[in-house]
Design a protein that fits this description.
This protein is α/β, with parallel strands linked by helices. Helix content is 47%, strand content 11%. The chain contains 34 helices and 17 strands. Strand 10, helix 12 and strand 11 form a beta-alpha-beta unit. The protein binds zinc ion. The site of zinc ion has 8 residues, from helix 16 and helix 17.
Length: 704
Amino acid sequence: MNRAQHILKSIFGYDEFRHAQQEIIQELLNGNDALVLMPTGGGKSLCYQIPALVREGTAIVISPLIALMQDQVDALRQLGIKAAFLNSSLNQNDAYNIQQRLINGELDLLYVAPERLQNSAMLALLDRCKLSLFAIDEAHCVSQWGHDFRPDYQQLKLLHQRYPTIPRIALTATADQRTRDEIISQLQLENARVFVNSFDRPNIHYAISEGNNAKQRLWQFIVDNHPQDAGIVYCLSRKKVEETASWLVEQGRIALPYHAGLPQEKRQRNQQRFLRDEGVIIVATIAFGMGIDKPDVRFVAHLNLPKSIEAYYQETGRAGRDGAPANAWMAYGLQDVITLRQFMQDSKADEAHKRMEHHKLESMWGLCELITGRRQSLLTYVDEASPEPCGNCDNCLQPPAKWDGTESAQKALSCIYRTEQRFGVNYIVDILHGKTDERIQRNGHDKISTFGIGKDTLVTEWRSLFRQLIALGYIDIDVERHGALCLTEKCRLILRGEQTLELRKPVKQDKTTTDKKQKTAVRPQDQPLWDALRALRMLLAEQAGVPPYVIFHDVTLQEMVKKRPSTEQDMNRISGVGGQKLARYGKEFLAEINQYPLSELLDNRLSSTVNETLMLYQQGIDIELIAQQRKVKSSTIYTHLADAIEVGLLDVHEVTGLSKAEFNEIVFVIESQEDQEKGRLKPVYDELDGEYDYGVLKCVQAAI
Ligand SMILES: [Zn+2]
């Protein structure tokens, strides 16, 4: 184990193992099998990469993700690890060379596609090698019921039969019990120790909002939170993918479409750009994602409702795999549910399957309309209890307003009843609103008792009410009859007044639910260095022909910015800088950091806004001008400067221009305040006959 610890630090550059990594590695080093269930971004690959380096021989990694192998192998080579892959993308000559290296024992890890292991030549080759372990990645592909089923995976049990003494590790990010059982039985892993890690992704912030202007709100969310970041935007249809991508381009971002209707080369090219360039937004249908392992995706946005909680969890799980903060953002509407139901109804699946899909969609919708924490209900899908509140979702951070919707629900339900459960949401809302259009008159619905009883309620509020009634199971949508609303058994209690209904208040459309505060990765005074290090990384990545994150992850660069190492030893202490990376890139990054020294004034722990002021102040800009530039009052600027005076970074005379005598006069007045007045500036201001600005007084107060 000491050796594993040493490798972790010297090669991968990390000080500590995460989660159960250490125990899993120990299990393999002891020669045992393991089944690992871990969310994406949990550090799965280290669980086999380190034992592969400790144990003698070559580790065989089975992965269905051929497109990913190149990047995985590139990343390992960057660390100085001898890795290669064998798959159909290689020409005969290259494949032959790799086979020779394998036989000569020159490889630490070899990635292969599952179908290769059916091949007797490949097995004969393995017979001639010293093998350290088998790692079966994406092990859920063995499950016939899962959507990633790969028949080749079911043959992998032969590894155990043919090489019974070689330890095996199966890994997956799919957590449900049925898949787990299937992996164990199909791969004959009955003796394997099972490691189930938490599937919570605490660094992802979840926010879900309903209503109109989804595109506009998406843009606001991106501008506020991710002006430079890479992200994925999911849409339901190809058409919407294309539209949204061009729209984002018009707004000034690099946005690329991805869907099954595009030619193969174009899809490949767009995916490649998303991986290799920085700050690219990919707009995609759910066809995109499997096999994407980009660690620095900072946001995943949904412009439509995913079809299940499971899908939502998987899709949002592509954000923040490097562990740094990331956003999962969604905007949805009533139309989504109707469209998805239509899809399901039209599919050729059998009735039982359709019912299940329907149920899954209901649950997803329930998650959206929820008034309690999001994370908890998200984790119920992996049967995991989560403490409430999570503190990192919209409902926890800005609890939604609630209202007693019982009476309104009664009006809505009885209106559906009186129109014989034949009409859709829009029509029912029109009746409630007392709209006299031709169709309503023709049907005589302007004569029924519910006509116009909901005039006081806004249309948006009615729509929100209907969404919630549907999500909560009081109303069903009959897709066969063009989305006609019908009553369920459950709504009797409400109609009879035996149950009250607490509902989520619809948010005002002009107020977006994204929090306004800018979430930049670094402090304002570190921004120039951060930009410089990212540019250097991009340059090196282009030279090496790898994605930037293969050089260093964002979190590693952020630590460099924070700690500003000046020697190679300091650099080696940065998490993610192992021996090989230090040798390769250490000097260049040290030189770059050296170019951006932090002044004494800006080397502080004060808030971002204070530092923004200090940066301008440092340039010798006048306080009034700083206030204008930052669009705040000059008294606010003085408050910022007072903070710096208080911690001894600025001199009060220099800031205020006060003479010694003036300063002493103010100090005298402040100190002679009665105890109960202490800290208040108004009395001081009055005592001095308003001769000095509040800002100046604040600075003097800070200096005392
Ligand atoms: Zn929460």
